[in-house]
Amino acid sequence: MGGDDPSLPTPPCNGCEGPTYVVKHVSFVDTPGHHDLINTMLTGASAFDGALLLVAANEAVPAPQTASHLAILTQMGFNNSQVCVLQNKSELLFGGGRGVAEGSAALESHAAKIRSFVKDTAAEGAPLLPVSAQLGHNMDALAGWLGALPDRGTGVGGGAVFNVVRSFDTNHPGDATRSLKGGVLGGALLEGSLRRGDTVELRPGRVTRDEKGKVVSFSPIVTKIVKIMSGKTELPSVVPGGLIALETDIDPALTRADGLTGMVAGKPGSLPPCFKRIFLDLTWLTAHQLGQKGAGDASDSDSDSDSDSDTSSEGDEEAAAGGGGGSGGGAKGAPKLAPKDRLQLSVGSAITTGRVKRCSNRQGKAEIVLDSVVACRIGDRIAVEVKKEGKGWSLAGFGIVREGVECNLDGGAQLDEKVVDGAEGEGQGEDEASTMPPSTTSAATEAADETTEPSGPTPDHDTLNFSEGGDEDWRQRFTALLEEKSRALLDHTRLKVPPPVLVRDGGARALWMNFGATCLALRRPPSHLAAFIRAEGGLGEVSLAGLDDISEAGTGSCGDLAMGKLQLRLHTRARALMDKVCKLLRKYCVEFVSCKQCRSAQTTLTRNDDKDIRRRATADMVLTCRECSASTFARRI
């Protein structure tokens, strides 16, 4: 099977060009590091089996969001066998003429900083692989680590629990009525198994509110699975592991634009209860875990706030007072909660807000009235965010659900305000709770009845040393691959550009005498450099000169001898012309010659400009580095 498309053959091995076979299917969830997208990490974390922690080798350690992501993994119970730390862009430490010895020392120093950063976290003792995604070095070792990830299990027996991470409508405007398809649910199966044709229930489903916007009851949505897809492969059944899509017979209007994201799907009667009020045991993150440079200055307070007041207003948006962070309920620097403070909670793949009804800062406990209904079990770990002035919601800590007040089921008997504690919560789905996997990047395998034995020998993963003691071996292997396959990066050479030779041609014009030689040194077509001078220089009109026929000179296809005679006529009366031209030439080299990643000048610019330099450069010009293989779009001139 060729990856996700069973109709394609498997590609040959990049190392020996021998035949390959599928060992495991892996689904990836990209969790951006930007602060505003931290919710993507919190939402997808419930579906993870393993995590790849990417650290750029040419940047300082740690980046603030990298620290937040690692804190999330640690709090969710991951261990070093589920985390792999990648030193990406490691080849950049060897470029710029540094040499192998200096690059290896820089790589080792950066690795030592990473080891210090991940101490006492889920990544302590995890594999640390120097890799180059552009050049492909050590990517085979990463594939070996992914292949060795343990499966979640067969999923046989018990009820199914499916976390809905995405929901969407696959129909297009104008489709015939008879060809319309039901809504699609995307996510991960955490336990149990699902088959095509199974009836599933989505909780909480539709939520009913009163005139004031308070939650009154909920009504689960019952649907039927029409199709199960993993990539481009249709499966008759699915077991835990990987991301899958379930096509159902739900009205697609409900699933459009992630309308059902955050819900839990599964076989009726096997799903967790739905709570409208929960009781949390809180653990706050420290400033170090959040990647902050200094600890908070919030004063420690031993006073409890145990108000029983249940009064609230819909427009109440009072933010929780936040410090720099802390660990434990009353630790120094921990946010100090008060009644009516607002929190944002990530429960599985659901994100909702809530209001603090009662809290004890000394004991680290809080009762939260939710703005929506969430389906969770007693003992589930959820992320807690507080609102900081000018920064929006910021991750502050985690809480464990110890008790909860269930919401009324629409059409069912009205429930009393009864608190469900840990012992009672374990009664529903006790078997399923005991098999809940630790949550992080999803490793997807085929369904049990679809799995086939590989035709070749099974790789011996024991020969791959992924322990902390193998760091030096992986660095030596990476250096050897650089010397063998990327010698041009190590033999970094600088371009020698001749200084401009300018001669006045009357009072209103000047000639750039060695313009062609400059274009030859930069390996750029004269028309593109001339267009840049005309658009950016403020020197008036420019034109090519020095040859009888300049029709081919603009693209640089007239030969090196003719190019050496090419001149550029500048129609300008500007003073200090030499300084201005040199400044423009440096600016051109930074934007259209130097690689944005490794700063090498050994680059190519594809899609030449127009010959007559009268029209603008095309918008799809690509700057490609011949040393690190990085590519980027060049801006329109």
Verbal overview:
The protein is α+β, with helices and mostly antiparallel strands and 637 residues long. It has 13 helices and 29 strands. The protein has a 6-stranded antiparallel beta barrel with strand order 5-6-12-9-8-13. A 6-stranded antiparallel barrel has the order 14-17-16-15-18-19. Helix 3 (99-117) packs antiparallel against helix 8 (471-485). 41% of the residues are buried. Residues 295-327, 424-462 and 608-618 have low confidence and may be disordered.
Outline:
The protein has 637 residues and is of the alpha+beta class. Helix 3 packs antiparallel against helix 8 and helix 11 crosses helix 13.
How many helical stretches? Answer: 13
Low-confidence region ranges: 295-327, 424-462, 608-618
Strand arrangement within the widest β-sheet reads 5-6-12-9-8-13
End-to-end separation in angstroms reads 45 Å
Key features of this structure:
six-stranded antiparallel barrel, 19% helix, 13 helices, alpha+beta, elongated, 637 residues
Set out the fold topology:
Blueprint: E1 25-26, H1 38-44, E2 51-56, H2 64-75, E3 83-88, H3 99-117, E4 128-130, H4 139-147, E5 161-168, E6 184-191, E7 194-195, E8 199-209, E9 215-230, E10 233-235, E11 237-238, E12 243-248, H5 252-255, E13 264-266, E14 274-284, E15 342-347, E16 350-360, E17 365-375, E18 381-388, E19 392-406, E20 408-409, E21 419-420, H6 422-425, H7 430-434, E22 443-444, H8 471-485, H9 487-490, E23 502-504, E24 510-512, H10 515-522, H11 526-536, E25 542-545, H12 560-563, E26 567-570, H13 577-592, E27 603-605, E28 622-625, E29 631-633
Parallel strand pairs: 2-3, 3-4, 9-20
Antiparallel strand pairs: 1-22, 5-6, 5-13, 6-12, 7-11, 8-9, 8-13, 9-10, 9-12, 14-17, 14-19, 15-16, 15-18, 16-17, 18-19, 19-21, 23-24, 24-26, 25-26, 27-28, 28-29
